[in-house]
Amino acid sequence: MQQDSDERQERGVGPDRGEHVATAAGERGTGQDGGAESSPCRGSAAAASRTRPSSPPPLTCIPVGERPLWRLPQLFVGLALYGFSLSVLVRAGLGVNPWSVLYEGLERHTALSFGTISAVLGVLVLLLWIPLRQRPTLGTVANIVVLACSSDLGLLLLPHHFGLPARIGLLVGGVLLNGLSVAVYVGARFGPGPRDGLMTGASAVTGRSLRQVRTVIEVAVLVLGGLLGGSVGPGTVLYALAVGPVTQFLLPWCACRSAAERGGDGGRAAGRRV
User: Fold this and answer.
1) How buried is residue 245: exposed, middle or buried, by Cβ count under 10 Å (0-12/13-18/19+)?
2) Has this prediction a pTM greater than 0.70?
3) Chain-centre distance for alpha carbon 97
4) Residue pLDDT, tens place only, 170-195
5) Phi then psi for 9, rounded to 5 degrees?
6) Distance between CA 242 and CA 205 in Å, rounded?
7) Bridge partner residues of 36 (DSSP)
8) DSSP the chain
9) CA distance 137 to 188
């Protein structure tokens, strides 16, 4: 009987077979140093986790003196791209983004230019920060100035007339560029601009995702701008529905991490872009 029991154990048969299998699997997955031995799939997953961060760090401001040589260029490049993306959408002629619809609507009722209205409205939007307990920062002021200048400059540089295929390409490219630019300059963590401060502040207060909050804001601005006479088209709807998901998808790659947040990773973030 002892011999039969030994034979069953060698074949993995018996009530404790699961324990034998688990033990064997654990032994195969452990190296000499007691660490987990990476299989090809496990190694690929680990590499993916290093190159595709699952979520951004908190989007609170980081002190200006922390990594300024990296973060300041990121801020101004993101803002310049944002303003230029607005110009691309205007030249596409298939419907501008919701905020530009509002700018155009106000332009019909005032003597101000597109860029000037953008700056003035940016200052007025800051009043909505009060209940959200947001405070203007360097990023807020830079947003108002750079956005107004880069959007007007883009309108001067881009031609007025394109064929329909080119206009469709401009529309899709403008939406993607706009979502990327928001992720870049918000990820620099100098503080969001007036419009995106509504997004980040409302997200923090309500607990809703950036995608949901952004979509609600864009739709509300779109309705108001349309009532004022701004131009609305299929590109406007595409922008209102797509820019939030694009921003949320790209933000983990663009969000900078503070020294305390990098230290909290236990040294694993040493090779990660921050």
Assistant:
1) middle
2) no
3) 17
4) 999 999 999 999 899 988 989 778 88
5) -65, -35
6) 23
7) 30
8) -HHHHHHHHHHT-STTHHHHHHHHHHHHTB-TTSSBPPPHHHHHHHHHHHHS-SSPPP-----TTSSHHHHHHHHHHHHHHHHHHHHHHHHHTS---HHHHHHHHHHHHSS--HHHHHHHHHHHHGGGGGGGT----HHHHHHHHHHHHHHHHHHHHS-S---HHHHHHHHHHHHHHHHHHHHHHHHTTS---HHHHHHHHHHHHH---HHHHHHHHHHHHHHHHHHTT----HHHHHHHHHHHHHHHHHHHHH----HHHHHTTTTGGGGS--
9) 12
Q: Interior CA angle at 55 toward 49 and 59, to 5°?
A: 140
Which tens digits make up the pLDDT trace of 3-52? 555 554 444 444 443 433 333 434 444 443 444 443 333 333 344 444 55
* Distance between CA atoms of residues 46 and 16, nearest Å: 33
Distances from the Cα of 199 to the Cα of 20, 52, 100, 195, 221, angstroms? 54, 23, 17, 7, 13
By C-alpha distance, which of 105, 141, 143, 116 is closest to 230?
105
Token output for 192: 């969001």
CA gap 255, 180 in Å, rounded: 12
Cα-Cα-Cα-Cα dihedral sign, residues 5, 9, 11, 15: positive
- Beta-carbon contacts of residue 56 (< 8 Å; ≥ 6 apart): 187, 251, 252, 254, 255
CA-based max dimension of the chain: 101
Contact 191, 137 (CB under 8 A): yes
For 116, the token pair is: 């000037």
Which tokens belong to 105? Answer: 């609507």
